[in-house]
Description:
By secondary structure, the protein is of the alpha/beta class. The chain contains ten helices and eight strands.
Amino acid sequence: MPIKQSFCSPCFTNDQVDFNRICQAAAQIGYSAVEWWARNEAFTDQVAIAKQYGLSVASMCGHQSLTAGLNDPAEHDSIVAELTESIRLAVEHGIPNLICFSGNRREGQTDAQAIEACASCLTRVIPAAEKAGVTLNMELLNSKVDHPGYQADHTAWGVAVCQRVCSPNFKLLYDIYHMQIMEGDVIRTIQDNISWIGHLHTAGNPGRRDLDQTQELYFPAICHAIHASGFGGYIAHEFRPKSDPIMALKAAFEQCKSD
């Protein structure tokens, strides 16, 4: 089977291309799914529009705060409540993945203590996720350019949280753009850690733009390696198009075809 491609809709909608149009175009191109970052008043309508064009909803954010996240015990009650509601909605709408965030580094907290804090929060909701068949994916983000202070900024740290939680329903969202900035060696890292990866995002580096000849990542090879690993999840495009979003989506789809 070819790799399953998705796209983050907020990156590809504008005054000329609304959610309905981008879903219609994506389905015609060959995309199998769409995703967004946050629930809003249009959530139910957006799910219906996506399904109208035969698109699944691959993922959405399970809780909202990126900087005050799983590593902060003071946030655990609110995050558990948010994730519990998100799991319910994921079941209702057939969404297999929810995104969660480590939060920013906290003064006086060691890496090991932060791992334990994340695991402590996650173990409160993992039974519900396992029962529902929903995977919680902690996103790996760069702390060098876009998210100063973010803790889950290296694959090894994220894997340590996965090992501590020890559930098939908690994995990593491996963002290729972010991890290229922080550690590079993308193909080897994906291959070595594919069992811990539940979802992937793309974008060109530098600039978080189109997957074209102006950036340093070669996505045909990356996606070939992902496909060869046996990965069965989604790879979603999360870049800001330089010009026409539909043409950018089509070009990205061709770059990442693995068959």
